[in-house]
Amino acid sequence: MLGFRFQPVIQNMSFILEGVGVTFSLSVLGFLIGSFIGIFIAFGRRSHTPLLRYSSSAFIEAVRNTPFLVHVYFFYFALGEIGVNIPSYFALLIALIIMNAGYMSEIIRGGIEVIKTEQIKSAEALGLSSFQIKRYIIIPPVLRVVLPPSLNQFAISFLSSSLGVVIGVKELTWRADFLQARNFLSLESYLVAAAFYIIIVKITLSTSRFIDKKVFKYKLTDI
Amino acid sequence: MAGKRILELKNINKYYDNVHVLKDINLTVEQGDAWAIIGPSGSGKSTMLYCVNSLEPIQSGEIFFQGKKLSEQNKLEIHESIGIIFQNYNLFPHLTVLDNITLAPHKVKKIPLNQCRKKAIKLLEKVGLAHKKDAFPHELSGGQAQRIAIARSMAMEPKVMLYDEVTSALDPELVQGVLEVIRDLVREGMTSIIVTHEIAFARECTDYCIFMNDGKVEEVGPTKEVLNNPKNTRTKEFLQKVL
Amino acid sequence: MELISGVNLKNLMFMLKTGLIVTIYLSIIAITIGTLVGSIIGWARTIANEFFDSIILLFVDIIRSTPLIIQLLIAYHLPGFLGINISTILAGSIVIVLYFAANCSQVVKAGIDSVTFNQWRAAESLGFSYFQQMRYIILPQAWRAMIPSYTGFALGIIKDTSLISVIGVIELVRSGQIIISRTLNPLPIWFVIGLIYFIICWPLSKMSRHLEKKAQFGEK
Question: Chain C closest CA to A66's CA: distance in Å?
Fold first, then answer.
């Protein structure tokens, strides 16, 4: 139909699916490790020590005000010059980790600021154990504030991994590009790849909406 | 009471999705009369007000304002002639008190701004809040905001004023201030329909009273009769609970 | 005068004149046209019936959920496929504008939706027409809700223009790559490229945070 020929693309589906796997590994690792580092940066940003505060802010601003593409090129090409030869996969991974760290630190900081000492004190006064306080008083409001933007950031990270194509990381976009160069079926290859991205992103965002509706039914108010 | 018929509701029926919220409502209001509408929550009191003001559509029946039937065409005329005050005042948060009051007369009735401003200040003096003219709504107390809302509606020089439980959301000590303003307007002859829980106020201020329950008018008559000698059992039950 | 190998005035001027100019040009086009188109779409979604709304939402979702680089790659090949002869930069610009417009439409719809229904009701009860309601009561409140997301997306699109380098358009990143191909010295050039982006973006992000704060003061 319409002169589209999807058949050759379907034949290479295993090739494409391998790319989906690579994309997944990059985004998940990048997101998780980046979030982990982001926790420290979030605390650094709130620290009373000026050095920690300024260096955390500097890191965040540097990450947020430069294009991700430049990060990717930088870690692949620029570091290669000083003798640090990183394989393309890891260059992209490092770029993803750093980007996630930069953005997740602000999201996590928002979560930290939701914790109110008065509520913890009331809970202590009521005799709740440290574990109970964490489970019932601290974690629910924090998750409510942190989860939606985090899922959003994961979706962004997932989409950003597509930049691997410029440095030869064999992720989904690279594979679509590779196929189209071979079969001259540009549109079909890219559209199939796009479909995968769209599906995953939609699932991520729907999950976020679902969690918001079902789990967090209450509104955070100042009590 | 002698006076021309300013508002008539004939066999009004309204549905929200499939729920029958107004059942065969009939009402005749004469100019200068003050009506109280009492009844339990969910009885359709507010809905009826919104229908009078053309904010909500009706599925069957007719509403007449000054003898003319309500329709899509004369919606604007209705809005200019009938004012409504909501339970949560709904002031425009991005405008000062003065701008809140002058915006509608200036933009809808095309009255020159300085005239609107003069009128607004007079109204503010009347409700005792002239000193707040440059304040923003979030700086006001509930009672002050409600009085400003009344001034805002009065700026359009309406012929009828509708009040939808305007004191229900207020702290008790702020309620009297608002009721005083309504009382003054009623005494000056403003045709008013007041949905309220303040039975004492209804008794003191209004000429006629309706008891609504489950979308129906259960009892209607002069206020003193309805409140002191209710004939309908449900009216009696309600008043017993409330008084 | 040469600071580090490759970073001399001549190369710098090349990057700025040939590269940065295009980046700025693309950003301005994307933001102006994209905001206009996006606002219309976002507003249309607030008055559309369910059917049209879901169709518009479908397109918007697809554009926002597909990596920009794939959209650019498609834009590179699509004209040939359709037999249309347009320049790469035009094709790429259209993609970037649509991408920004899609994000903008979400911001606008969310902003308008954030104004409580009570405000609409109060405005209607005072006799305002639909357009008067939008102009004097709804939009002044809506735009305050739009600012944080809008400025975030605007900042993002300035950085995203860098992706058009992948399909061969010479902007800041590409101009840097051209110099690197001559000097074979990537590190300082990539650093300079990042620095130039930073110099443009950081003040804008500070300004947007300032705007956010200002918009909140005096609000209910």
Answer: 6
Domain ranges of chain A: 14-214
Residues 6 or more apart whose CB falls under 8 angstroms from that of C67 comprise A159, A160, A162, A163, A173, A194, A197
Residue window 72-101, chain B: list those with CB within 8 Å of chain C.
76, 79-80, 83-84, 86, 88, 90-94
The number of domains in chain B is 1
Q: Shortest Cα distance from A182 to chain C (angstroms)?
A: 14
Instruction: Report the Cα–Cα distance between both ends of chain B, in Å, rounded.
Output: 28
DSSP notation for C14-58: HIIIIIIHHHHHHHHHHHHHHHHHHHHHHHHHHHS-HHHHHHHHH
Residues from C in contact with A at Cβ < 8 Å: 61-62, 65-71, 73-74, 77-78, 81, 155, 159-160, 162-163, 165-166, 173, 177, 180, 185-187, 190-191, 193-194, 197-198, 201-202, 205
ipTM: 0.90
Which CATH number characterizes residue B184's domain?
Answer: 3.40.50.300
Indicate the SS3 state at residue C147: helix
Query: pLDDT tens across C107-151, in order?
Result: 999 999 999 999 999 999 999 999 999 999 999 999 988 998 999
Q: For domain A14-214, give the CATH number.
A: 1.10.3720.10
pTM: 0.87
Beta-carbon contacts of residue C166 (< 8 Å; ≥ 6 apart): A69, A165, A166, C69, C72, C73
Which chain B residues touch C129 with a CB distance below 8 Å? Answer: 76
AA identity, residue A76: Y
Tell me if C159 and A159 make a contact (CB, 8 A cut-off). Answer: no
User: Which chains sit next to A, with 3 or more Cβ pairs under 8 A?
Assistant: C
Backbone dihedral angles phi then psi of residue C202, each to the nearest 5 degrees = -60, -50
Each domain of chain C, given as residue ranges in start order, spans 22-174
Domain boundaries, position B107: 5-242
- Hey, which CATH number is domain C22-174, 3.40.190.10, 2.110.10.10, 2.40.280.10, 1.10.3720.10? 1.10.3720.10
